[in-house]
Amino acid sequence: SEDQKVAQSSSATLEGLKPVQGLEVTKEGKIFKITLNRPQKFNAITPDMYNGIKDALIASNADKTTSVTVLSANGAYFSAGNDLTNFKKAASGDPKIIKEMAEDAKILLKNFVDSFVTHEKPLIGLIQGPAVGISVTVLGMFDYILASDKATFHTPFAPLGQSPEGASSYTFPLIMGPLRASELLLVCKKITAAKAHEYGLVNEVVADSEFSATAAKIVEGFSTLPPESLRVNKTLLRHLHRENLLKTNEHECEVLAQRWQSKECHQAIAAFLTRSKK
Amino acid sequence: SEDQKVAQSSSATLEGLKPVQGLEVTKEGKIFKITLNRPQKFNAITPDMYNGIKDALIASNADKTTSVTVLSANGAYFSAGNDLTNFKKAASGDPKIIKEMAEDAKILLKNFVDSFVTHEKPLIGLIQGPAVGISVTVLGMFDYILASDKATFHTPFAPLGQSPEGASSYTFPLIMGPLRASELLLVCKKITAAKAHEYGLVNEVVADSEFSATAAKIVEGFSTLPPESLRVNKTLLRHLHRENLLKTNEHECEVLAQRWQSKECHQAIAAFLTRSKK
Amino acid sequence: SEDQKVAQSSSATLEGLKPVQGLEVTKEGKIFKITLNRPQKFNAITPDMYNGIKDALIASNADKTTSVTVLSANGAYFSAGNDLTNFKKAASGDPKIIKEMAEDAKILLKNFVDSFVTHEKPLIGLIQGPAVGISVTVLGMFDYILASDKATFHTPFAPLGQSPEGASSYTFPLIMGPLRASELLLVCKKITAAKAHEYGLVNEVVADSEFSATAAKIVEGFSTLPPESLRVNKTLLRHLHRENLLKTNEHECEVLAQRWQSKECHQAIAAFLTRSKK
């Protein structure tokens, strides 16, 4: 199948970047492409993938031959978010091990999110299917999101005993106002692509059958704009929010590291992993 | 009638809270409920009710058995806002009395609005009918608003010689952008529930016939989420805005205390009270 | 034709204000009116017009007989934005001349935008046709925008090697969220009046045939509100954003002055002026 073929090539990367299972990093003309490629696991993000995406965003900043950066995904899901098997070690119940794990995960997450804050090119997201957790929250730092009508957006933090990240506690109220931000981040309603469009989290929704063609056309169009202007103007638009985003990310990571050490979180994740095994 | 029956029980309250005419405070399972219950006066808010709502919000913060707080109202109106008969004393025209009244009202209002800023649980508003003035402006600090299609939203500050409060000069531009905020708060257009939904001031609108059932289902659903996560996540979402909200409230109260001592305000309120008597 | 008749009277102004070609400044009852009147050049804004609009906004602040300020335009276009023939001098290619020109234009622009930030009356925009560049970006500082369905909104900064101004890097993310702000200001999509309405940049859209009548009715209605309240409440709503707007304007002007001295900008403008001549 198409998915399997793609999965086999999952470590395609650029010179100077470490190959990462589940991630493709390529260049096509003026387009720097980062592709989630772990479709058999719904593109859940492993520690290596967090670092791989971060490194790719930094590499794109340094690359003068491309003018825009694109994040997309292979398979039916955009991304199931944080791979909760990352938390398996916590099952030991040993508070010292759990604390260590929380501290490591905090640093991993902080650097990952910072690489979106400090990105210098227009960042285009192509959301072809369901997006969950961190794969939704970082969208607030993108510049253009195209979604298929098969995409959904869900940030189930409270049910999993966790707290919002991806600088979403800053970006979501700015994008959609605090009431809608609470609807998503606090009481955790799942929304459709149409609703995400209405809420300003998505710029454009198309039928799934038209998704690939529309995506190619949009990305191509944006990539032909003068590259220096794109970079200067992206920096200008980020200027006002940069410090707030970095601070928010730091605060969110602190809160989340505490949550990861809480009983509510352990119980919720244990229940989730049990359900998943069945 | 239903309204009268409800009105007779209007001082239902919780142990430790002072009973207040026109206000019910109750607990149902994991839900802390505050209900405006002065339907014969369109739930206009008296000084005792301001303090009663504030005390209830503080009591809900301290209550560990409930996970969400709900504000709703009995009768056809959600609330006519500030009870303008509060200003009757000002009719004397004595600047000293008016100044005293303005200073008292300023403190009353400031503490009332602060109790929304510092609330620690998800705050759900059930707006079954027209909402006016302060009962609209504080909605910007809620986490989820369900409105009946019979609800309307009106903040007629300028026609009454007054100025926006409820931290709305901060929350409304964040929710709907400055142009729409000016449409409501500056040139004072009344909007429907559908428009309020479009503007992000309301999360969901349902037909009046489905209002009670939908409200019960929503509140019940949210109340079953892990309580500690709800509290941590509400605090996280409020974190970025807390200082701004407190400062905005203070500034708005200062400006409003000045307005209450202005000729424009006295003339407008005198005209309003005369119209109401007819 | 109507346009020509209007154009002949293009220097109508008020006592104390210097007449400016392409600009009318008048008072009608409680309405202070500023009208772009250079329809044969699509109301492109000349240096004199920048200063004339700034002076008119300041004069309206000082005028106690009017309660609202209206900006409208004659002809088919609202405004083509900055008159790019302003840049003809740059064609010399002499870096010293270009730098001087950039510094002068920076000061002109800064003072122009500041006069919107510090305006003290409700500012109503009547957008009867296409709006481009600076005539779009300043709309974020208005209080009510009525648009004809013939209006469009376009800010093609990157294609012209330029960067956003008009404090739009602050107001646009607040109005429509950062993703939609990037759609307009970074990748430069042109939008219809309906889309601008959806994005909160326009309060109301009407069919072109109803535009004049609706505009007259709206402006008349707002102008009858108590003038002191309007001024106090406008100041209150601006209070939270004033410093940010001034700082943003300063930063945007600095960045733009650099862009004006860049090769990308010179090539883009040279190409534009060549196309226009054909």
TrEMBL record, chains A, B, C:
Principal location: other
Key words of the record: Isomerase, Peroxisome
Keyword flag Isomerase: yes
Protein's cellular compartments: Peroxisome
GO MF annotations in UniProt: delta(3)-delta(2)-enoyl-CoA isomerase activity; fatty-acyl-CoA binding
Catalyzed reactions per annotation: (3E)-nonenoyl-CoA = (2E)-nonenoyl-CoA
Coiled-coil region(s): none
Highest taxon in the source lineage: Eukaryota
One annotated Gene Ontology cellular component of this protein: peroxisome
Protein name (database record): Delta(3),Delta(2)-enoyl-CoA isomerase
Organism this protein belongs to: Caenorhabditis angaria
From-to range in the entire protein, with total length: 105 to 382 of 382
